[in-house]
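Ops channel
N.P.: pipeline sanity check, posting one input/output pair.
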């Protein structure tokens, strides 16, 4: 491809709305352009990389005999209502009505659709197991789209679904997808972690996420050298909360004027945060839930939703809470509260003489004790883990790293098949619901994740197999006929062997070099002043110095050097480790 004819509008300036490096570089490098908040156009460079990522994903799916289909983006509301997820997804769903006032959604995922499709086609256990996948656009109305293509409203995803007649069969396919995802990441040439994950609105039991390590990733991962790893939504630790040996004191209600936050309460009452219990009100399908946790810890809403199996669970609005309970949120507490289910984190189980909201404006209770002053309905782990806490497997301090999720696998069980009445005839002649698995891969997210990990101060450092071009030919001047003629000859020779970009623009050498680095092309072939001696310069993207190659007797030696350098090319070696102890 000739650069003079290629639509690759690079920019010198950093975009005003670029929050992270990948967003900045993809815009500056001419890969994407913003159409609306969370919606992007992929320009030729971006589209080319996407297609190469898709090819790798598609090949690994076909290697495990998953079959490609293509399902509609627009899905009828009925199937989502039948599964119960019309409300679970809530405002994240892009909902619309047709001219007949029928409800539809732009699919955020396709569990309902695929189950509806196969339930009338797969009738016998003899047809199982089977897995089907597609690569298609998805839509989620993110409340705050951010990080460029990493958290967008419209995105490209590979989603796959498997159908089984036994848990053993599901386990086998789950492992096959797990290994296929590892192969994808290895072929993409990035550092990654596989971690235990929350199932969220997808549901099911076991789930793992495939995370690309990144200094400014959107996910927080806790891991240990023993092999344990999990996202912050799922992570647990082996913290032991010892029983207090204090004598129970008399509960008192005290004045706390305009004192609402944990920090304010601690300072005003001169107590440590560990002596305060946070009281947080949530509303879900079954009504109000009061979640209690020790004051120095953060509540994990994903664990709370998972415990109740209710993805609609959300924190109550201040005005709604005041109308329902007659008190402002800063003074809510478990003593005397009515018509709520009280769920407590294990961190407060052994506490004594602690502080809670007084259920009255500008009031708190001190010396509160469980069972004597209020009852708890259930204890469960609803706490966010912190770096340094003991690993649940070996007890060593947990480490923390940031990551970007690019893939996730789920064991769905019979969640969708039962609700959507998708049954097959088992070997014993009985009708049974399909046991299902689900496997997602974010194609467009992968684009951003790779850039976030593999870049330097000059631009992107693409792995060879997904770079928009493997090498670029740069004559330092198109006005020097000797250079332009030799560049043309070289271009014709190489374009049948490699994915080649020929920068034939009438621009300064510095401008061309900067664009090549910004775009992230693995190898430069430079035709400059050394051509007087019959030599060209060859330089990998991350190398400081170029290698001179004599071409006076032909291109044979140059071809050997090009192949050698491209085979040795490994961006990971030149990107600093982002593991944080």
């Amino acid at each position: 491809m000739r650069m003079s004819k290629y639509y690759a509008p690079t920019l010198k300036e950093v975009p005003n709305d670029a929050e992270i490096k990948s967003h900045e570089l993809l815009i500056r490098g001419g890969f994407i352009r913003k159409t609306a908040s969370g919606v992007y156009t992929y320009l030729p460079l971006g589209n080319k990389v996407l297609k190469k990522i898709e090819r790798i994903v598609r090949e690994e799916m076909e290697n495990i005999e998953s079959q490609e289909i293509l399902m509609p983006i627009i899905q009828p509301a009925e199937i989502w209502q039948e599964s119960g997820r019309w409300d679970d997804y809530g405002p994240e769903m892009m909902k619309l009505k047709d001219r007949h006032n029928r409800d539809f959604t732009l699919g955020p995922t396709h569990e309902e659709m695929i189950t509806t499709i196969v339930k009338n086609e797969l009738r016998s256990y003899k047809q199982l197991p089977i897995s089907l996948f597609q690569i298609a656009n998805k839509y989620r109305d993110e409340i705050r789209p951010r990080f460029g293509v990493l958290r967008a409203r419209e995105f490209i995803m590979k989603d796959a679904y498997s159908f089984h007649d036994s848990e053993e069969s599901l386990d086998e396919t789950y492992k096959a997808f797990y290994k296929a995802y590892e192969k994808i990441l290895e072929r993409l040439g990035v550092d990654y972690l596989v971690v235990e994950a929350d199932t969220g609105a997808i549901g099911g039991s076991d789930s793992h996420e495939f995370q690309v390590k990144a200094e400014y990733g959107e996910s927080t991962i806790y891991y240990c050298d023993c092999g344990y790893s999990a996202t912050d939504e799922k992570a647990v630790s082996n913290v032991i909360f010892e029983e207090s040996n204090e004598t129970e004191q008399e509960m008192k209600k005290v004045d706390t004027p305009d004192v609402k936050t944990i920090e304010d309460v601690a300072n005003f009452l001169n107590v440590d945060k560990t002596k305060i219990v946070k009281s947080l009100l949530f509303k879900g399908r079954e009504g109000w839930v009061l979640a209690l946790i020790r004051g120095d810890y953060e509540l994990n809403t994903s664990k709370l939703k998972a415990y109740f199996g209710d993805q609609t669970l959300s924190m109550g609005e201040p005005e709604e809470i005041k109308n329902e309970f007659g008190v402002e949120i800063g003074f809510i507490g478990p003593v005397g509260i009515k018509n709520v289910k009280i769920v407590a984190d294990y961190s407060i189980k052994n506490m004594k003489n602690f502080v809670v909201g007084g259920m009255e404006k500008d009031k708190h209770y001190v010396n509160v004790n469980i069972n004597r002053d209020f009852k708890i309905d259930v204890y469960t782990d609803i706490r966010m883990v912190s770096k340094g806490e003991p690993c649940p497997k070996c007890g060593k301090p947990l480490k923390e790293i940031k990551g970007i999720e690019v893939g996730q696998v789920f064991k769905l069980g019979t969640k969708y098949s039962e609700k959507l009445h998708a049954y097959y005839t088992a070997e014993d002649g009985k009708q049974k619901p399909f046991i299902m698995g689900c496997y997602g891969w974010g194609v467009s997210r992968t684009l951003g994740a790779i850039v976030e990990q593999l870049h330097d101060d000059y631009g992107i450092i693409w792995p060879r197999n997904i770079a928009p071009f493997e090498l670029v030919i740069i004559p330092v001047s198109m006005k020097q006929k000797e250079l332009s003629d030799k560049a043309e000859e070289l271009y014709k020779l190489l374009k049948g062997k490699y994915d080649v970009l020929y920068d034939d623009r009438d621009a300064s050498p510095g401008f061309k070099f900067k664009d090549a680095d910004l775009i992230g092309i693995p190898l430069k072939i430079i035709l400059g002043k050394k051509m007087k001696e019959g030599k060209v310069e060859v330089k990998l993207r991350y190398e400081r110095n170029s290698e001179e190659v004599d071409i006076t007797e032909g291109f044979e030696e140059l071809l050997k050097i090009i192949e050698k350098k491209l085979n040795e090319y490994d961006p990971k070696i030149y990107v600093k480790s982002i593991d944080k102890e």
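N.P.: looks fine end to end. The radius of gyration is 29 Å.
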